[in-house]
């Protein structure tokens, strides 16, 4: 038996007191009462914030969107299969946030901004909340810079500006994703950071899109956020917010960004699934009453910032799928009311071989010519009006046995203009090429051509301008204006090219 003197005991106690860490950590914890379908009912978690991140006993992370009188409803970010009743849950004290940095460029991540491309971790020293307030009126300025898509059908008739929200809407398999993803490679060299958000897509489709970006050198300024069809509803719901947070990081650093949400119909369905499992009261089409709010607070974050904030911008191209062309359905009408215009893709033109199948009559840009270069504004002029009139005349001519000469001329001009707007996928046109092409159609230079030869004639004309009239390209590129000299050069090129191609057509 060891004899310990009282003085030694007191010195040991005093030593322990001196070394005692006074920082007492108190965790807000709760217990899982019920779990199923990725939804957990939790007792406890007093004072948990709406949308706060919670951590389950097995390490699974979730959020707490429902706070009721006697329990908290939490949704798991994963499949939730490892969560058990009676298990403990810890509140993290943090609203959902993600790390952000320049190192995300060229990477594919999930809704928590974790890499899923097998290229290792992503270094970052900063984080942003997944949801943040949209810029106010004073923080914004009017949209005035063009966001060139490379598609003549949009840039000439439905222009998109930096900071605009332009909805891409249409039935499935009408080329909505192609219109949006063709815009990303066209931003090469334009100092625009792109974010592509894939929500509920097939993994093969996402891989194909990323592969296309890599082949065309676009991945170096692009971030892909992917939550595929087998992901949880929570992850699919959060993915667009994660993409917006990544784009905001660059926007507030005085850079231009483009974000594509592909597509918000699936996000709305994921939100409906979450809400029904959380036992929120269903409304129209079983969606919760606040289904408008997730889309509005997401898309309102797209903006053109004021001069005081550096004039950065976030341009949003949300995609929404319709059923049988019904734009009056719940989700389409909601998103149409939030955005600054829509590009409507119709199934009938698509099946008839018109690609991109943009319905110029229904499509609209509420920013309009403010988002066009001066050169395009000068030559496009009445192009959209002529196309809309052509569509009406074509429909009416089906019932007329013998249309008059004016109608026949209008139909002939319209058919050639429709051919002019056809464009292969992954074949963007520069501004100077679009100006030359649009002028050729709007000035009537194509009226003498056969309809089947319009595409070939225009392609050869663009090549002829590059090789024989480089001054035209230089004028448009440097001044962004269709000057008298540029018009004279283009007229010469059209005349010379037409004369050189005529003998070949007569043989």
UniProtKB/TrEMBL annotation:
The keyword Chloroplast applies. It catalyses: ATP + H2O + 4 H(+)(in) = ADP + phosphate + 5 H(+)(out). It holds the Pfam family ATP-synt_ab_N. One of its GO terms (molecular function) is ATP binding. Its main location: membrane. Gene3D superfamilies: 2.40.30.20, ATP synthase alpha/beta chain, C-terminal domain (1.20.150.20), P-loop containing nucleotide triphosphate hydrolases (3.40.50.300). The keyword Translocase applies. Belongs to the ATPase alpha/beta chains family. F-type ATPases have 2 components, CF(1) - the catalytic core - and CF(0) - the membrane proton channel. CF(1) has five subunits: alpha(3), beta(3), gamma(1), delta(1), epsilon(1). CF(0) has three main subunits: a, b and c. This is ATP synthase subunit alpha, chloroplastic. The gene is atpA.
